[in-house]
């Protein structure tokens, strides 16, 4: 039976959203060829969630926290055991670190950051944004297994209503050429833009760093993450972790609200595939309006606080 | 301290993208080519290491003749050697490119091998770690701070909401992220000095590879298309902040279903 193997990551005792999304599209691909969805994790506690999103088996390697070489070896062991014909990894930092290393080890094809996946004449076909979202490439991945990393928020996470996955312990030779000596958590407690469903971004229109509080208040009220243009990051108003765009993070949330952001091509590169885009800018000619679903021509200093109030009222209902 | 920096030549990020006649590649007419922005951070870091510790910085590019221009520019910024591997990089998949680069890197003395975290345009983020695997080296990916001394390298790797400090023995592969440094511009002196350096050229057969090793082996391009036009976007006047706020909330509730 053909199987689809999904690399899963656990955070706070739950599967990361990227992993849940990858499992969901993986299940569709497996079902289409009457195959089986299986998963890999380094933590048995993932069995419940993995099953909930359709995985029948969970291959568990006791490799501990992330490290490129040992995870490559462990994933290879899981691929060998499951005879997977497709391997999917959510497009997290670790997924994107691991996929190319694994593809090179197995001498197979890999497509990164894909936002569509389907079978076409027995081959895995993927669509991926290229040229900073100015075009889409459709590629066919050959070889067994065919590997892809999935763009976060591109595939909806859908539960299958199934019980926990059966845990299969695997072992892989320890192999590590790198050592993580420290992990520095930046601005703890803040929602990361990488996985957020809603992002509220501020640009140079905020005039000064202290005014980012307007953006934070709105983000907080609506339950979203804080994004930023490069101009504000370069000005030192906010940390680089928040930067959206070509040299920041590429995001595709359900809702992207941009205030005082002009919409330079390098910014659009990071957010143009967002599902719903609202822009607030005082310049009616600002390029951001070309991709906004709802554009408001006006002063962010009056509109953003009013919006925060209205959102709070709507939430209170 | 010897470094190799892999330089991808890509369309200027401001370029308007048009689809070429074959429906699979871009139309190259009028496109200005530049050094991929992340590779500039990679190059700058290698040059700084050389300035402190001595050694060579070799820039390496695989692709058509125009790649020489990107290598020349990199020499003008401070690289000391350049190697151009001629070949059809446009029809090679990432692992094919990685094979070519890995073979070329073996022929050049090195302690560190630098890449951009992503080649702007193809936006793959694949080649660096693939080369690391082919050479059997450790990789530190998406690096925003780097130190190298006494056979060891330490890099700060950007991950979601945090930064990992990773240590490895050299030789190692580093992929550069914005924030690693502020790349310099070429000076007039640098431009003049660069003119004196001969760019070494090789073919893939010189490296012991055949076209069949690299061309669209594992990933084949089926088509390239422009995104659908965003129609139905609305623009309204925000002179009345309260009315604007109410309209946004209605949109978020009814259309984005996010409230
Ligand atoms: C290689 C390269 C990579 C880059 N990568 C990125 C990237 O990753 N991300 C990124 O964002 N940029 C990136 N840039 C920079 C990009 O080109 C722009 O310079 C940047 O995005 C501009 O930021 P901004 O929109 O905040 O500022 P501006 O372009 O200055 O826009 C400010 C906007 O605020 C509006 N405004 C002013 N006051 C008000 C008000 N009171 N109310 C409402 N609106 C107001 C103005 O009309 C204007 O449109 C990159 C550039 C290069 C060359
Ligand atoms: N044809 C090439 N020649 C030299 N270096 C390349 C080439 N293609 C990619 N690279 C390097 O690999 C990095 C990542 O590219 P990519 O995997 O295409 O996103 C780039 O930033 C370059 O450092």
Which class best fits the helix and strand makeup of chain B? alpha/beta
Largest interface: A-B, 95 and 89 residues
- Could you spell the SSE succession of chain B in H and E letters? EEEHEHEHEHEEEEHEHEEH
Order of helices and strands of chain A: EEEHEHEHEHEEEEEEEEHEHEHEEH
For the largest beta-sheet of chain B, the strand count, sense and barrel status come to: 9 strands, mixed
Strand content of chain A: 25-35%
Q: Helix tally of chain A?
A: 8
Number of strands of chain B: 13
Give the overall silhouette of chain A: elongated
**Mean of residue pLDDT values of chain A:** 94
Name the strands of the widest sheet of chain A in spatial order: 7-11-6-1-4-5-12
Query: Terminal Cα separation of chain A, in Å?
Result: 50 Å
Strand content of chain B: 25-35%
Q: Which stretches of chain A are poorly predicted, pLDDT < 50 over at least 5 residues?
A: none
Estimate percent helicity of chain B.
25-40%
Low-confidence stretches of chain B: none
| Oligomeric state of this protein | heterodimer
Report on this structure.
The complex is a heterodimer of chains A (317) and B (259). Chain A is α/β, with parallel strands linked by helices and 317 residues long. Chain A contains 8 helices and 18 strands. Chain A has helices spanning 17-32, 47-52, 68-82, 93-106, 212-222, 230-234, 265-271, 300-316; strands spanning 3-7, 10-11, 14-15, 36-41, 57-61, 84-90, 110-114, 116-120, 123-130, 135-141, 146-150, 166-170, 178-185, 198-202, 225-228, 255-259, 276-281, 294-297. A 7-stranded parallel β-sheet of chain A has the order 7-11-6-1-4-5-12, sandwiched between helices. A 5-stranded parallel β-sheet of chain A has the order 15-14-16-17-18. In chain A, a hairpin with a 2-residue loop joins strand 8 (116-120) and strand 9 (123-130). Chain A is elongated. Chain A starts with a strand and ends with a helix. With 259 residues, chain B is α/β, with parallel strands linked by helices. Chain B has helices at residues 37-53, 67-77, 94-106, 127-135, 188-195, 211-214, 241-254; strands at 3-6, 9-11, 33-35, 57-63, 81-86, 112-116, 139-149, 152-159, 162-169, 172-176, 200-203, 219-225, 234-237. In chain B, strand 7 and strand 8 (152-159) form a beta hairpin. The longest helix of chain B has 17 residues, at 37-53. The radius of gyration of chain B is 22 Å and the shape is globular. The termini of chain B are far apart. The chains are: A alpha/beta (317), B alpha/beta (259). Residues 203-205, 229-232, 243-248, 260-262, 264, 266-267, 270, 280-283, 286, 299-301 of chain A line the site of flavin-adenine dinucleotide.
């Amino acid at each position: 039976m053909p199987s689809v193997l999904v690399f899963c990551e656990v955070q706070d005792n739950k599967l990361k959203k990227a992993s849940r999304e990858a499992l969901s599209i993986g299940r569709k691909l497996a079902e289409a060829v009457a195959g089986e969805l299986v998963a890999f994790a380094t933590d048995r506690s993932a069995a419940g969630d993995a099953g909930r999103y359709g995985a029948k088996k969970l291959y568990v390697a006791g490799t501990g926290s992330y490290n490129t070489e040992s995870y490559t070896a462990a994933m290879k062991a899981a691929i060998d055991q499951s005879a997977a014909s497709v391997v999917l990894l959510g497009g997290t930092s670790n997924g994107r670190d691991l996929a190319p290393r694994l593809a090179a080890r197995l001498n197979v094809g890999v497509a990164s950051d894909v936002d569509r996946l389907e079978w076409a004449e027995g081959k895995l076909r993927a669509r991926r944004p290229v040229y900073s979202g100015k075009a889409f490439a459709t590629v066919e991945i050959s070889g067994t297994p065919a590997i892809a990393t999935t763009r976060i928020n591109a595939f909806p996470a859908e539960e299958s209503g199934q019980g926990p996955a059966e845990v299969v312990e695997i072992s892989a030779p320890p192999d590590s050429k790198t050592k993580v000596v420290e992990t520095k958590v930046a601005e703890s407690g803040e929602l990361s833009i990488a996985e957020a469903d809603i992002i509220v971004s501020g640009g140079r229109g905020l005039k000064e760093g202290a005014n980012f509080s307007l953006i934070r208040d709105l983000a907080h009220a609506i339950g979203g993450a804080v994004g930023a243009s490069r101009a504000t990051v370069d000005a030192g108003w906010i940390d680089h972790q928040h930067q959206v765009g070509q040299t920041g993070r590429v995001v595709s949330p359900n809702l992207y609200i941009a205030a005082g952001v002009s919409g330079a091509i390098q910014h659009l590169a990071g957010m143009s595939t967002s599902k719903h885009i609202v822009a607030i800018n005082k310049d009616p000619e600002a390029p951001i309006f070309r991709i906004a679903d709802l554009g408001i021509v006006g002063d962010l200093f009056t509109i953003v606080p009013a919006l925060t109030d209205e959102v709070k009222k709507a939430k209170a209902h | 301290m010897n470094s190799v920096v892999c330089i991808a030549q890509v369309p200027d990020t401001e370029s308007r993208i048009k689809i070429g006649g074959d429906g699979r590649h871009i139309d190259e007419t009028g496109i200005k080519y530049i050094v991929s922005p992340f590779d500039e951070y990679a190059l700058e870091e290698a040059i700084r290491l050389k300035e402190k510790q001595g050694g060579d910085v070799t820039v390496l590019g695989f692709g058509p003749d125009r790649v020489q221009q990107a290598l020349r520019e990199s020499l003008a910024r401070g690289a000391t050697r350049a190697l151009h591997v001629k070949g059809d990089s446009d029809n090679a998949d990432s692992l094919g490119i990685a094979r070519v680069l890995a073979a070329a890197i073996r022929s050049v003395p090195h302690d560190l091998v630098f890449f951009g975290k992503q080649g702007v345009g193809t936006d793959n983020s694949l080649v660096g770690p693939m080369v690391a695997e082919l050479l059997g080296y450790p990789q530190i990916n998406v690096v925003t701070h780097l130190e190298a001394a006494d056979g060891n390298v330490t890099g700060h790797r950007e991950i979601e909401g945090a930064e990992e400090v990773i240590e490895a023995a050299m030789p190692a592969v580093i992929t550069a992220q914005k924030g690693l440094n502020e790349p310099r511009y070429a000076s007039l002196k640098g431009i003049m000095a660069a003119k004196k350096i001969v760019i070494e050229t090789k073919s893939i057969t010189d490296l012991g590879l055949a076209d069949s090793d690299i061309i669209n082996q594992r990933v084949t391009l089926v088509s390239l298309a422009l995104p659908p036009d965003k129609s139905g976007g609305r623009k309204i006047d925000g002179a009345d902040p309260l009315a604007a706020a109410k309209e946004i909330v209605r949109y978020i509730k009814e259309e984005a279903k996010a409230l």
